[in-house]
């Protein structure tokens, strides 16, 4: 990143450290659950506060951070909070607070074992996520990306059933292979360019790389980040990973881990290869074909799933590719939409997962076919579900509409009709696989066993209502808190240097 | 403090006095053998540290024994590379010998004096090989260390003497190859001093006797290093030797063979001359690459923990030899850093296996389950850390040596080896996660719950293992200065 607008700051490092420091405290207070969970909440709040304090600088397009030591010869351990990193860190750390409370309700309500390991690994995951967000070069990125893989493993295998063990094996074999491909690509780039720095617009040195080698480097990096981003055909670990407890599926497999993947897609394409080179080499077409295919096929596969979490997982696969598609459009507005969808999908999908978890804990139901009439007993929960489902189908006033609208404008700006058609078609498919659930919950006759069960515990219901309200609020007023829209467009301007101005994006994206 | 100039002589003096002291006190008090041996190793390690700090960025120190200047006399040469190897060997040996206090009575019984005297002789041989500047003297130390290892390995299970005998035969063949090679070099150059020969090599490196010598020496050293396909002695020896002998020999034994390869390949011959007529370095690198894959695949198919670790050693020694054979600063730094890492990881893993073997009476992987985690939480934590480092995942040290090795293969333009390095990580993941899964997740079934009570090994065994695990984390973060220091030692042509 350009040194001109770079300022030294410890804050990104402290944000990373906040949850890392909490890990030993969590581990040592295993016999006192209330104390243990207070460490989690404290760490989450501190982390979020630190990230929020970075926003004003990020809105001005500034980057703050520091270089701590050499991670390997010639490769510094760089933490740099640029606007894009801040945005991702903001989403992950903000939703961690909500998830912490939800986890308490879920884990205790479900009488899960080994909660100490759960909460400790969770905190470690969040540290690595912040590391991924703030990594200033590809090597630091890989470092945290791999730590994230490792620290998620205990969470995926948490239940220790055969299914969980199978899922964790699948998870490891996909993600470790992906990590290796990323490392391989990084090695080739480093030997060629002598640096692995993230630079808005890409590394100039890559232009001199022979074309076949460049293509293989691109494909290796794409596969490396694509596994976590669930790009087909690399997605199949994600539905299996639903064996994990629901808070894990909610925050990690809808927000932190998978978004590290799409975050990585943008880092790699925009900050290592550079969009100009992407277009010259027509790599954007590869991205578009893969993501378009993923969106449609994942949506179709979602129809087949009776297990609620699995249906949500396929829906996640599809929506992650919205973000990748937004990159492939290669226009400032498209990228803005893509980044907005990182935030929008996060709040909506976490809501849906929370709902699935609370239905499971409260009613011990995990299949869609068992959900007849539950809205009468759980009105708040199912209301939130409806909001999330509407948003994912792209209906106003939820934030999913807004991000999708921006994505659509982006593809019009670039003069591309196919992405637009995919977006519209996928919206219909989303409605197709979500609304039957809503219909069942509201209009079918409930079974006798549901009489008077009432709402789930407030520990779970309140977080659900919060995330659902966030989805609506951000849909109505995208810049209400934290300037998420501003941030997203700042990133787009950084990456498409001097082609568009901020006001142009603002003018184009008029909120109806 | 001791003058740096006479420091090289201190190593054999320390070790020989230690050995004598062990034997003499052993006549009356055999229980004194372990503390004396550990202290001797500890002081040798301290001396190595002092030596390394002294020569890391300075001119090599040459010490001529008896004041006879080479080529008439024998000289010891202490430079960065030898200082580094000394420190690795002696500090790991210190920890392993310290750890053996918890097992010596059960495993060694009345043979303690013999065991500890042999351990120090082994160290003497290894230290001597690293320090000497004379090719024939190197052979002498090679034989000292080999004889000591034959003895150490034969103290073990019922098959141990057989494994030791097999090692003896193969090892002697290896030593003979080496000696023959040295003979050829002597016949051509008329000297045995490494520096002298290095000066003459550029002129004569294309002649038949020198090439023959090179092939013979590489074969001999390859056998000692258990380089694929000459690894046959290693799995047997490590599996059947007793737990503390294999923990001592496995981490450091083959490393010195790698050192000879560095010394003769890169310093005596030099990168340019090794490949002048025959593609020696490429051949070694390819063999090492095949060995990496073969060792990993064999490790996957093992049921016995020690045997699995032994095959993993075959694979890991492949990394080191390959890094050396790449003949560039990246591969060199990666190889030497991997010497350090592998010594730490392998000793940690063998210490764990010693604990398990002692407490459970077997090292059969299929019988591992989650009671092990409850019984030996510390030991298993060490195992986990060492395993993750072996797989090569950040933030542990193993990742960084592999990274440097991968850069080395790219620098050398070898895509085959690049792929080998990366894919072997996955193979390592298979055989280590398989165990981790058992230890952390596999339900023990109908076993008596009292089986799962905390019965961790005594602190004297736990502490060294923990130190090794912490070292892996520390070197993961502090790798850059170490790697940069090593890169400076790469001989400039």
Describe the model:
- The complex is a heterodimer of chains A (512) and B (493).
- Chain A is mainly α and 512 residues long.
- Chain A has a domain at 282-512.
- Chain A is 72% helix and 4% strand.
- Chain A is built from 21 helices and three strands.
- A three-stranded mixed β-sheet of chain A has the order 1-2-3.
- The longest helix of chain A is centred in the middle third of the chain and has 32 residues, at 162-193.
- The model of chain A has no long low-confidence stretch (mean pLDDT 85).
- Chain B has a domain at 313-493.
- Chain B is built from 21 helices and two strands.
- Chain B has a two-stranded antiparallel ribbon with strand order 1-2.
- The A-B interface holds A 69-73, 75, 142-143, 146-147, 149-150, 157, 160, 165, 169, 172-173, 176-177, 179-180, 183-184, 187-188, 190-191 and B 333, 388, 391, 393-395, 399-400, 403-404, 406-407, 410-411, 418, 422-423, 425-426, 429, 433, 437, 441, 443, 477, 479-481, 483-484, 487.
Secondary-structure content class of chain B: mainly alpha
Oligomer: heterodimer
Describe the global form of chain B: globular
**Main interface: chain pair and counts:** A-B, 28 and 31 residues
Rg on CA atoms of chain B, Å: 22 Å
Structural class of chain A: mainly alpha
Number of strands of chain B: 2
What sort of overall outline of chain A do the alpha carbons produce when their principal axes are compared?
Answer: globular
Number of helices of chain B: 21
The largest beta-sheet of chain A arranges its strands as 1-2-3
- Strand content range of chain B: under 5%
